[in-house]
Amino acid sequence: MEELILTLKEQIIDALNLEEITPEDIENDAPLFGDGLGLDSIDALELIVILDRFYGIKLANPAEGKAIFKNVATIADYVAKNRTK
Amino acid sequence: MIKVLATNIISPLGETTEQNYQAVKSGSSALSVYDGWRNIPQVFTASLLSDEQSKRLLIDGYTHFESIVIRSVAAALNDSDIDVVSARTILILSTTKANVDELAAEEGSDGNYHSPGRSARRIADYFGFTTEPVVVCNACISGVTAQLLAMRLIDSGEYDNAVVCGGDCQSPFVVAGFMSFKSLSPFECRPFDIERLGLNLGDGAATIIYGKSSGNDESWKLVSGSLNNDAYHVSAPSPQGDGAFRAAVRTLEGYDTESLATVSVHGTATMFNDQMESKAIEKAGLSDVPVSALKGYYGHTLGAAGLIESIITMRAIDDGCVLPVRGYSEIGVSGRINISNEERATDRKSFVKLISGFGGCNGALLFTKEAAAPDTSHIAKDIRTLHSVKIRSSSLMIDGEQADLKYEGKEMLSEIYREYSGDYPKFHKMDIFSRVAFLASELLIRKDDNADSERAIVLFNRSSSIVSDRKHIASYSKEGEFFPSPSVFLYTLPNIVTGEIAIKNGYKGETSLYILDEYNKELMDRIVKCTFNGSGTKTMITGWVDCSSENEFEADLRLLTTNEL
Question: Which of B28, B94, B370, B538 pairs as cysteine with B146 (C-beta 3.0–4.6 A)?
């Protein structure tokens, strides 16, 4: 799990161009949207691409993302349970 | 004020305005389900030209996009007697992605891709236009922007006639992009309906030929218009329809809305667009005016939409009716609007066209067939430069003074950001073209203390969004690797940066992007001048910004102001 969380953080930083932010700066249970990293609606769609591209998970309905993308821990949990690659 | 001299629509529903109108009137649509279309791994519904129709329309030596544009322009010209060779006739081409399908096809080979500006030049040459054409690339509102530009150029006395053509051909490029935004409905779209699931894309080209009007002509006239940015978000509209509301109100200023037969809306059938449009309509006092929404017939034809929807609405009013909203059955928006899926009779002779697009841009136009007072807004104004910024791949000049920088190319942009701007994380998300334009604007604004929330942003370039175009192509074209990214696709609309600048600074004035075949100061000055004249703009960030690769870019931006004479 630790390894998956680190990989996810790196993938998020890369895909969302979070300049000057390192994996250590992102706490596992800190909110990604709103106050936390301040991500927005395009970033949410970009996270859907990460799930598809690296883990073979297809989220057809972006509304499903809300609970999954709460924080890095919830993403890792969802990925661990649903990944196909 | 300008008048309509001739029109044409080429779409899957027909190749003349009349064929198109009769098809729509009979309730037809070419919307079909595409499964496995050109290796796209998801199902979608769209209104596409058939292979047979495309083949028949193809003109030897021209691309698919150019061919349908040429066919449409030729048909409209055939119905008018304007002189295309005249130095007082201009071609204005409205398109979002022009020949991008050819760019995708040639990746890795020595192809012969024609940029939007070059393509416009080729189309102009086909007919023998002697003036330089202009491409309007203002995302989904391009077709409205192009008509407004025609009005301003003619009202300012720069030209007598304008041939305005809008066109876009759907391709994996655009389909993949909209898929990454989860905007496409797998089913036929349902504008304003409770069960709407998104939009359908459509192929089309449409032309309106405009000439001068005294106001007493019996033909259709374009009376006024406004473009306003939401200054809210680059890909999501303001939930209250702020920009659309302001564009509508400014366009209808002093006009009796009791005379409106219909509000021809954008109505894409996405959750956000239709909701915000309903709010804008209600706030603008248009709740009782019947809504026309045509995406259920044509899908979203992008650069052609503003033209097709204007033409069909004119034709319907001539026929004494407001067309049914195809796909609509139960209200699914919270703003109060007057909408029906049945045809309604009208004896009114005016309408307002609304449109909104990525980059936060919104537009409105007012058309009438009644006599109208001549437009007096084109007062000559004195335009002055307050500040100027020049960025090259290895240098920066602010108000004529060379700045001392360590780096070159992309690193130099990061250096400028750290040195002069900073603390705006969105900067790192922008593509290279947007970074150059954004930084140039930041440097201008730094020099200027006067806040102007109505400030306009009018940019010109040559290479459109070529760097992001290539990046997006790479994200979907490898077999088995279909991972288009919304943030990459977004920047394949070169007007996005005008939205970035508007959002950063809260500018709610006009935002536009024009593409030229080559840098042309005289033409740019002409467009800037007529924009000041026709829009009531007091200050403007404008100039040339071009970026042909990650390390080759140039920006010459100025902050202009005007004193009304």
Answer: B94
